[in-house]
Amino acid sequence: MSGLTFDEDTHTYRYNGNVVPSVTTVLKPLTNLDMVPPHVLQAAADFGTAVHKACELDDLGELDLIALDPALVPYLMAWRKFSTEHSAKWVHIEKQVHNKTLGYAGTLDRYGYVDGMSTLLDIKSSIELYPSVGPQLAAYDKALEEPVIHRMAVQLKGDGTYVAKHYTDQTDWPVFCSLLTVRNWCTRHRITPNL
Description:
- By secondary structure, the protein is an alpha+beta fold.
- The chain has five helices and eight strands.
- It has a five-stranded mixed β-sheet, with helices on both faces. A three-stranded antiparallel β-sheet has the order 1-2-3, with no helix packed on it.
- Helix 2 crosses helix 3.
- The longest helix is centred in the N-terminal third of the chain and has 22 residues, at 38-59.
- The chain starts with a strand and ends in a 7-residue tail after the last helix.
């Protein structure tokens, strides 16, 4: 996307050189993980990143299965099972998107066809599908310039199974917009919100 850049080390999106908030940054107030030790959170984040990368490389036909960490194999098998059982065909894999009107950006996991329907999909390896997934998918939907019939998440599990969930709550988008509005207002007034 012209004008949009992403710095992976700092997880910073810029549009024409100006920093724009990420979808995950905007949604941060919805996820309170303060009770989890930082090293545990970092390990979970690193593992989730590895699961995503394995699925991405597999979808692109570039995965070296022999070199794959054995801990990742059940998650990959769950992803393959979902993809086969639902005839998944991807148009976009790990696509950066930007909503120019509202000024936020993010990277959606998958967009394409699931069971023949245009679907925006997020891959999760977390222990549960948190409520914030709905607003997350709604934000990607409004930043993607293609039609979306279904928003869904697929939770991959360590036993090689998966849970697929559709998101249809009409308040998902207003919730994201509300958080973005509060964030932008606080930024303009140099206020650190106490959320």
